[in-house]
C-alpha cells in the first residue's frame, strides 16, 4: 500500500510540462523539472558516469507539446 506522500509524488509527476533548452547543463534541466513538479530530483552520478555523461553535459531539447514530468 502506498503512503499519502507516495501518492502526492506520483500525482506531481503527472504535471504537464513543455521544454525548450539549448546547450544547457543537464543539472539545470533536471532542476527545472523538479521545480515545476514540486518534487526532489537527484542525479545519480554513478549512473551518469556509466553512461559517459556528467551533470554539466549540455542538453538541447525543444518540446512544444506538453508531456508529463514522469515521461
Topology of this structure?
Elements (H helix, E strand, L loop, with lengths): L3 H9 L3 E10 H12 L7 H6 L7 E11 L3
**Helix amount, in percent?**
25-40%
Major sheet = 2 strands, antiparallel
Task: Estimate the mean pLDDT confidence.
Answer: 93
Q: Order of strands side by side in the largest beta sheet?
A: 1-2
Helix-strand sequence:
HEHHE
Terminal residue distance: 23 Å
Q: Which regions are unreliable across 5 or more consecutive residues at pLDDT < 50?
A: none
Determine the structural class based on helices, strands and strand pairing: alpha+beta
Quick one: overall form?
flat
What would a concise description of this structure say?
With 71 residues, this protein is of the alpha+beta class.
Offer a few descriptive terms.
two-stranded antiparallel ribbon; flat; 38% helix; single chain; 71 residues
